[in-house]
Amino acid sequence: MVITKPDFDVAIIGGGPAGASMGCYLAKAGVSCVVFERELFPRPHVGESLVPSSTRVFKDLDFLPQMEAAKFPHKFGAVWTTDDKKTPYVHDLEGLSADCNVDIRFDERIQPGIDKTYTYHVDRGKFDLMLLQHANKLGAAVYDGVKVTSVDFGPKEPVVRFNMGRNNKEMGVSCKMVIDASGRNTFLGNQLKIKVQDTVFDQYAIHSWFDGYDRTVFAKRDTNLDYIYIHFLPISNTWIWQIPISDTVTSLGVVTQKKNFAKSKADREKFFWQSVASRPMIEETLRKSNRIRPFKDEGDYSYAMKQLCGDRWMMVGDAGRFVDPIFSTGVSIALNSSRFGHKDVLAALEKNDFARESFSNFENTLRLGTKNWYEFITVYYRLNVLFTYFINDKRYRLDVLKLLQGDVYDDAQPPVLEKMKKMVTEVEQNEKHPWHKLLGDLTSNAFSPSF
Ligand SMILES: Cc1cc2nc3c(=O)[nH]c(=O)nc-3n(C[C@H](O)[C@H](O)[C@H](O)COP(=O)(O)OP(=O)(O)OC[C@H]3O[C@@H](n4cnc5c(N)ncnc54)[C@H](O)[C@@H]3O)c2cc1C
User: Fold this and answer.
1) Are the beta carbons of 409 and 368 closer than 8 angstroms?
2) Does residue 298 have its Cβ closer than 6 Å to ligand 1?
3) pTM
4) Which of 344, 229, 345, 241 is nearest to 298 (CA)?
5) Residue nearest (by alpha carbon) to ligand 1 atom 49
6) Any residues with CB less than 8 A from the CB of 243 and at least 6 apart, and which?
7) pLDDT 10s per residue in the chain (451 long)?
């Protein structure tokens, strides 16, 4: 067994947004670090629409000029649509519309530390490559095409193991601590057996890219053209994302529950088209465009970890937690985990103390943020109409927008969420409530406290 030298202070497993941004933060602070990425970038990846809290990270990392130069579509807001003819939504409860067709602009609320009125939709192949190259430019070593096979946490420093070369020779790199940024591969979560599957959110998605999909069909105004569109379907807990990738290319995906999802690949494509057909205008528009990528499906992706850090390790991004992508949260959580996490890593290096407690600020902040996202998503699935009702209500609109902007890390119990939770419970408990028949099939008692 050969142990390569010199060692690094920090070894990062995975070069997606979480690993690359951690590499940027640490390298920028002068820390010797290495990123292991099993793929050769660019590689395609689901998750193309960002939320504005990502901008703080781009600013910290001097990465905004590259984002602008890449000419990614600017995302100024979000639209939710429904087919009024098929869905008997109740209007004018307490004099307010409970219509499920709403839109919101990010510039309606000033966001501390962010001076842009938009965020971005990104081609993840291109974006992930750019960020990983940026980490490398800032001084992080990048070993791409190298798959980490195990980490030895002995009595001393951890050793990250991988195979290299024509003879697949086993190699090892020692470091002071390991950061797991391996995404839904959950490398350390599996090795340490601390992953907890979410038994309630068992969503599946099938998606592709389409050239020539006419986005003007749904845009009420020209300015709405490059928003993200969430189209509600008249099928329980099922929705479609519509995300601009370029002037002509659009990403569309159907998200549904496991029980609705077809088992065979061929049936899944059929399922995609059947779901789309439940909104005839979307189907008609989509049929006129060209699919330019094979369909891809992803499934049963929601989970948590019993710990987000331990002695000499930390998990960032999807490696630590995955929540349903309905509000385009994943990349922002990945980037912000590095924003919060790198501070604890720098302090641990300074003190030469890598005990679990050294990373508790990070763990507490991340848990608070993902709890808020999770509760927000839960309320949405329990009663779609409640979510749009709150957006339409002037009293709550900006508080909901704060969550949609990704500012979820500074308040243990956002009042608007408490209000939403109370209201949906009332609707669930009162069969005579006009919204009772609009409830989804997830109810409050379905959720275990660990989530
Ligand atoms: C259906 C669906 C739709 C989504 N839509 C959105 C959206 O619109 N907006 C959004 O922000 N997010 C979305 N997401 C979530 C988003 O894709 C993720 O949250 C985001 O990619 C997380 O970044 P990450 O760096 O943690 O993980 P990843 O981007 O997955 O990166 C992890 C990297 O680790 C590498 N790796 C894994 N194992 C090893 C190993 N053993 N050795 C070396 N390298 C390894 C992988 O190759 C990968 O490149 C969506 C997710 C799903 C499932």
Assistant:
1) yes
2) yes
3) 0.94
4) 241
5) 16
6) 48, 49, 121, 228, 229, 250, 251, 252
7) 554 455 899 999 999 999 999 999 999 999 999 999 999 999 999 999 999 999 999 999 999 999 999 999 999 999 999 876 544 444 445 544 556 788 999 999 999 999 999 999 999 999 999 999 999 999 999 999 999 999 999 888 999 999 988 888 999 999 999 999 999 999 999 999 999 988 888 889 999 999 999 999 988 777 788 999 999 888 878 899 999 999 999 999 999 988 888 777 778 999 999 999 999 999 999 999 999 999 999 988 889 999 999 999 999 999 999 988 889 999 999 999 999 999 999 999 999 999 999 999 999 999 999 999 888 988 888 888 888 888 988 999 999 999 999 999 998 889 999 999 999 999 889 998 888 887 877 665 555 555 5
Q: Which residue has the tokens 């500074």?
A: 410
- How many CB atoms are closer than 10 A to CB 432? 5
Q: 75 with 226: CB under 8 angstroms? A: yes
Q: Which of 121, 331, 332 to mutate to test the pocket of ligand 1 (most atoms within 8 A of CB)?
A: 331
C-beta neighbour count of 75 within 10 angstroms: 23
Best mutation site among 24, 25, 37 for ligand 1 pocket (most ligand atoms within 8 Å of CB): 37
Query: Which spans in 352-396 are helix H?
Result: 360-382, 384-392
The domains located in the chain, with CATH, are: 2-64+123-197+303-365 (3.50.50.60), 74-95+101-120+200-299 (3.30.9.100), 379-446 (no CATH)
